[in-house]
Amino acid sequence: MAWIIRSILTMKTLIFWRRAALLPALLLNSIALSNMNAETPSKTETAVLGGGCFWCVEAVYHRIDGVVSVESGYAGGHVKNPTYKQVITGKTGHAEVVKITYDPDKITYDQVIGLFWEAHDPTTLNRQGADVGPQYRSIILYENDAQKQIAETSKVNAAANFDDPIVTEIVPLRAFYMAEGYHQDYYENNSRQGYCTYVIKPKLKKLGLDVAPDR
Question: What are the boundaries of each domain within the chain?
């Protein structure tokens, strides 16, 4: 019984941290860091995917060589131009996602998706840790048939690394809506906030990415 109580308290604490995390960003109205490298490549491609809280996924891909920019947003739902308050109700159908712009000469779409399986748990339905709801589902939104094939093949190959079945959705991208400004570069601007300290930072350390992104 004691471990059940501790588990519930931990979950409630993490949810509190995530909600409280919005306050400093809103009050300080901090300007998001520039998400572009000094030299923008002449050719770029994009990948849109979601693996729970977009703050976490954004922080991971910021630190990957070849990634030009990462934007947090919403996709996969039925409401146009949704707000964060609407999405977190779980009623708009949207997932919290990131749009990754990358240099295909430095990193491939297959590699982007390969990291995706390591950066979150794709076996938990509508949940990542204490973040629960369809907005936190594991999802890959492809832009063309080539991306679809690569994502599906990658999913099959990644299955061998998990004891439970992968529940990640692979669906066409209909629209991507950028999230509010205070969500962009969230970890970089609020690294000492509770959710960032106890959820995002350990994830980055586990992946060997606990360094500042190369801007």
Answer: 2-206
Give pLDDT tens digits for 111-158: 999 999 999 999 999 999 999 999 999 999 999 999 999 999 999 999
Q: Which residues does 33 contact at the CB level (< 8 Å), separation at least 6?
A: 185, 188, 189, 215
State yes or no: is 56 an active-site residue.
no
Active-site residue (options: 21, 25, 53, 150): 53
CA-to-CA distance for 211 and 59, rounded, in angstroms? 10
Per CATH, the homologous superfamily of domain 2-206 is Peptide methionine sulphoxide reductase MsrA (3.30.1060.10)
Dump pLDDT digits (tens) for 8-35.
334 444 444 554 444 444 333 333 344 4
